[in-house]
Write a structure and sequence with these properties.
2 domains; mainly alpha; Multidrug-efflux Transporter Regulator, Chain: A, Domain 2; two-stranded antiparallel ribbon; 7 helices; 148 residues
């Protein structure tokens, strides 16, 4: 199949397939006599694996490791689990950062009148060099709401 068909079958765009080839995540496809890339079912299977790993948020280097382990039938699952646990820790850290961002913005939006006056607590909060005190108030507000 050509790159468009492989893209359609795998759910990975042709542009991403070319990118994955350029960074040696996947082998460069064989070429037909006319110079077109050709892909087989195993290539599509590999691309689906990569797509799913990307959907789960794994970065390229971890996907590279997972691919190597996936293709090694003599591997132990301990290394796969270790990679996954590291990724979970990274996701937990990102989630915590996102919660702080959301809470800070919620606090600022709650205290903005949203009227025709120029004063805007949201812009003032963004302008602050350090918004941790806003975040601390947001956390305290959440504790009060939970205690109620």
């Amino acid at each position: 199949m050509n790159i468009g068909q492989a893209a359609s079958a795998s759910g990975v765009s042709a542009k991403m397939i070319r990118y994955y080839e350029s960074i040696d995540l996947v082998q460069v496809a064989a070429r037909s006599d006319s110079g077109y890339r050709t892909y087989g079912d195993s290539d599509v299977h590999l691309l689906r694996f990569i797509r799913q790993a990307r959907t789960l948020g794994f970065p390229i280097e971890q996907i590279r490791q997972l691919l190597s382990l996936w293709q090694d039938q003599d591997r132990a699952s301990a290394e796969v689990k270790a990679i996954t646990r590291r990724h979970i820790g990274e996701l937990d850290a990102r989630i915590a950062e996102l919660v702080v961002m959301r809470d800070t913005l919620s606090y600022l939006a709650k205290h903005c009148a949203g009227d025709s006056r120029p004063r805007c607590p949201i812009l003032e909060g963004i302008d602050r060099a350090d918004t941790r005190h806003v975040q601390d108030r947001t956390t305290a507000d959440r504790r009060v709401a939970l205690a109620s």
